[in-house]
Automatic annotation (TrEMBL):
UniProt-recorded name of the protein: Helicase-like
Native organism taxonomy: Bacteria, Pseudomonadati, Pseudomonadota, Alphaproteobacteria, Hyphomicrobiales
A GO term, aspect molecular function: ATP binding
Domain of life: Bacteria
Gene3D superfamilies: P-loop containing nucleotide triphosphate hydrolases
Helicase C-terminal domain ranges (all copies): 307-448
GO CC aspect terms: cytosol
Gene source species: Chelativorans sp. (strain BNC1)
């Protein structure tokens, strides 16, 4: 076994798979003045300082992720939020550029907040000019005029217009980075980008949760155009290594109201009636109907009001996720009664409010889907989940918002407040959606028991 490990290590180095070493042909090494013939002398440079205790081990997953991608050339790094996906991607880009494997790169993401965050990191980490194609930035043509030695940072939606205009020869020396890659599987992008991504010589997907539940077409598109998952480093791994903080899980129980039960019975009855008539809609439609009833139940409000009276601290440095702005109004009444400085952060709200929250000027944000992905605010301590999908993708993204290590709070331990429906209906639910709360509860319980090793 030891001989086999050493052989695999040698092959990794020889094939330039280790980011800490680079292998040159002898003539090329001489030409680059990398070899100097000399007598045996003392080390001509000081030995590198030792890593802080545990530091190298804590972040070794990034090195392993880079090595996995350099070997595969195309695929997805499934890494938990806060474990350095962006840093790993930029290390890959730098290494490929240094090796002469790429001359240009395209980074695609969704949402102005996340794209702005990417721009900040690109400008800080690379000397290549960065052109932007999202929101008010219209610099795609400048990139297309001369893509060599440049990076394009673009929204996912703009790729269908931009990529056909990129000269064919550029793809052979190009890297594509798709952040939150699960979003690339949406029906509109599948239709507009089929065959547009594979020409990139290197294709890198990043996501904490790359699989789209209940969406076979989207998953197939992502694997065909970008690649399979080639590396995994999950939330439990990150908590155990001390990269993410641990958290306490608070379960607030509720039961459906009579109105909720009536709406549920109607949705199921309609589905079965259509099925008997030979006109059954896709089962996903019933998933969505039942999930919406669960997410919008107002029976969650009383237990939350009682909980924050006893634990008002949970509202500080918190993100509260609701399904709709109308539901958010019910929550806002509780926040005002607790005298919390808060603001909403929905689709039409001023983005400056996110900055105010990041700076500590607001204690709480009430939001829907807008802040679920990619935003890095280390001081977020708590999340409240009034609305949670059965698919784990969004829940994982939201959990990642509060588990980042905060250098200003070294003893940080997060809190997750969740709502669990405890009654069991005898209704004929073919989706299993009614058990979604219990499934999520079991997952959270297991994860919250994780401790740094």
């Amino acid at each position: 076994m030891r001989v086999q490990n050493e052989q695999e290590r040698f092959n990794l180095i020889w094939n330039n798979g280790d980011i800490n070493l680079r292998v040159y042909d002898l003539p090329d090494a001489v030409r680059r003045n990398l070899i100097e013939f000399t007598s045996r002398t003392a080390r001509p440079y000081p030995a590198p300082p030792a890593e802080a205790e545990g530091g190298a081990v804590r972040w070794e997953h990034q090195r392993d992720a880079v090595a996995a991608f350099l070997k595969a050339k195309a695929g997805i790094l499934e890494m938990a939020t806060g474990t350095g996906k962006t840093r790993t991607a930029l290390t890959i880009a730098e290494e490929l550029q240094a090796r002469g494997e790429i001359k240009t790169a395209v980074v695609a993401a969704y949402g102005t907040d996340l794209l702005d965050q990417w721009h900040k990191e690109l400008v800080r980490r690379t000397t290549m000019p960065v052109f932007r194609a999202y929101e008010r930035h219209h610099e795609a043509q400048s990139f297309l005029n001369d893509p060599d030695g440049a990076i394009l940072l673009a929204s996912r939606q703009s790729l269908a217009d931009i990529l056909p205009k990129l000269r064919a020869g550029a793809f052979a020396k190009a890297l594509l980075i798709c952040d939150e890659v699960h979003g690339m599987g949406s029906p509109s992008l599948v239709a507009s980008l089929a065959g547009r991504l594979r020409p990139f010589a290197y294709r890198l997907g990043l996501s904490a949760t790359p699989e789209r539940e209940y969406d076979g077409d989207g998953n197939r598109f992502i694997e065909d155009e970008i690649g399979p998952v080639i590396f995994e480093f999950g939330l439990k791994d990150a908590i155990q290594k001390g990269i993410l903080c641990g958290f306490d899980y608070v379960e607030l129980e509720y039961e459906f109201s009579d109105e909720d039960r009536a709406a549920l019975a109607l949705a199921i009855r309609r589905y079965h009636a259509k099925a008997r008539a030979g006109d059954a809609p896709p089962i996903e439609a019933l998933y969505q109907d039942i999930a919406r009833i669960r997410k919008l139940s107002q029976e969650k409000i009383p237990p939350f009001r009682s909980y924050v009276r006893e634990h008002p601290e949970v509202l500080q440095r918190s993100l509260i996720f609701v399904e709709t702005a109308e539901y958010g109004l019910l929550v806002q009444d509780i926040l005002m009664a607790q005298h919390v400085d808060f603001h909403t952060y929905y689709g039409d709200d001023d983005r400056a409010n996110l900055g105010r929250f990041a700076r500590g000027e607001l204690g709480c944000l009430v939001t829907c889907h807008r802040i679920s992905e990619g935003i890095d605010i280390q001081s977020v301590n708590n999340i409240v989940l009034f609305a949670s999908a059965r698919a784990r993708l969004e829940t994982v993204q939201r959990l990642g918002r509060c588990l980042r290590i905060d250098p200003n709070n070294t003893e940080k331990r997060a809190t997750v407040v969740d709502f669990i429906r405890v009654e069991h209906d005898d209704q004929n639910d073919p989706t299993g959606e009614l058990s979604a709360d219990e499934e999520r509860r079991d997952w959270f319980r297991d994860l919250s028991a994780s401790k740094q090793t």
